[in-house]
């Protein structure tokens, strides 16, 4: 069965998750496509690359299909699937060795004399100066506009940990850019 | 002057304006299309001789009916013809005995591909559908996908199945199992859809059929097991058993002893491991006046999370007549993770750890012997793995596999020697998964006639 959700059709989440749990691939696909931009942006924010983002989304949907029968509460489908997407992105980043060593970036990013007053800085480059957890938390909070509770669910840590990662990360970024930043 | 938050806001707006690529839906659908439901057996391409079924079936029917004598075989129905080579075990025996319900109804897709629901067989544990797909080409018959059976009270998902393609690749016969429908659902729809890239793409076909509950195969044993096995802090409770001549299902629950254990069952632990249980069922029955003891073939297995714990079920082949006892053996738990390693190998290469910084599995030696490639692995005693060797891009056949126990630095290791057919300059070892096995070895007598 194909589910047509274009044109703002409201999705019956419970019904669709139930069908997806029963093995209906089109129902699962419809659930994802209903929030396709959100999923793509999330994957892109992590991978910073369109092709890697698509690979992560493909990995995610295969895992969702295999695992959805284990989902306890249908209403948490979206946060659960985004957690899996984040894990897929992490896997792709690890596999493609895109993680940049902190020291290298700190050295590069913190040298004085950025042209920051004159033109836009590449914030993504400087985010790489933070550890993986801090980067994730800051990206989800400031780039994806997620609240602390949602971030905690997606990265599977307590809310307090999320707040601490964001606060430490921001502090480090500010130190890196100098007092005015 | 902008601050950090401003810079992040600019980036956020940039990301916010991004749209999912147009091809996203197609790519995700393709990724899903390559997936099959867990436990589904892929299509086997075997030689299949047509035209001899009727005679063979008549002979087997005569012999087998005398051999099997269940009280539950009160109904004498129709054999669903053409499935001797697709079925096995008790399903085959029962079909031979005519325990199926003939349906013989079809749906034809716009591209001419025809699906015929030949018959079904039902017991308390499952519904077995036997159906045939006919089409102009192999691609068309393989592009028919099966959906859950639809009823008024619910839809019933498939659990396992296998198919057999004809020599000319224009016909395929499938035997597909579904969860047993609600007893209130008599009128059902067998539902299929086309994924062919032609006029029929996305077309959904429904074949309505009626279940005759009088023809359902009744249970021989139905009991509560209520036995708990505690292993490494986790409780495994075996709850119920439902056994018919067609199938046996054991159901139970798992109560993990820690959050880390929970994560393994939910596939959320750091290594991405998934746990499976290895459970066997052994029956003793009387044949020709003598007791015979045999293991029942495991057919399905599943786990799901629910309130208060994790539920599991195992499906086995059906019982033989004159059953004397049934013993359930909880053999082991196995944690499996994806490692997806491709390692280039050459004869005489240095020892190589399959997983960096881990001694779980080490390639000790590679050599060529009589034109074939021999690879020696040292594995920690609880590690299980299955290597494949690609030579010039083609998978090589495993000619021999021999395990041995060795001791290194006071530690016992399993040394496995694989002999692969052929050799070459471009050789890659592929290892998809790595498992760790922990033996439980606990027996529970679930039924005894005495």
Please provide a written account of the structure:
The complex is a heterodimer of chains A (181) and B (450). By secondary structure, chain A is mainly alpha-helical. Chain A is 66% helix and 0% strand. Chain A is built from ten helices and no strands. Chain B is mainly beta. Helix content of chain B is 13%, strand content 51%. In chain B, the strands form six sheets. Chain B has a six-stranded antiparallel β-sheet, with no helix packed on it. Chain B starts with a helix and ends with a strand. Classes of the chains: A mainly alpha (181), B mainly beta (450). At the A-B interface, helix 2, helix 3, helix 4, helix 8 and helix 10 of A face helix 1, helix 2, strand 6 and strand 16 of B.
CA-based shape of chain A? globular
Quaternary state reads: heterodimer
Largest sheet of chain A: none
Residue share in β-strands of chain B: over 45%
- Figure out the total of helices of chain B: 6
Number of distinct helices of chain A: 10
Summarize the structure.
With 181 residues, chain A is mainly alpha-helical. Chain A contains 10 helices and no strands. Chain B is 13% helix and 51% strand.
Helix-strand layout with pairing:
The complex is a heterodimer of chains A (181) and B (450).
Chain A: H1 13-21, H2 25-33, H3 36-47, H4 50-67, H5 77-95, H6 102-109, H7 123-127, H8 132-143, H9 148-155, H10 159-177
Helix pairs in contact in A: 1-2, 3-4, 3-5, 4-5, 5-9, 8-10, 9-10
Chain B: H1 4-16, H2 24-33, H3 53-67, H4 89-96, E1 101-108, E2 114-122, E3 126-134, H5 138-142, E4 144-146, E5 149-150, E6 155-156, E7 158-165, E8 171-179, E9 187-194, E10 204-210, E11 221-231, E12 234-243, E13 247-255, H6 259-265, E14 274-287, E15 290-295, E16 298-306, E17 309-317, E18 323-344, E19 352-353, E20 361-369, E21 372-380, E22 383-391, E23 394-395, E24 398-408, E25 411-420, E26 427-448
Antiparallel strand pairs in B: 1-2, 2-3, 3-8, 4-9, 5-6, 7-8, 9-10, 11-12, 12-13, 13-17, 14-15, 14-18, 16-17, 18-26, 19-20, 20-21, 21-25, 22-23, 22-26, 24-25
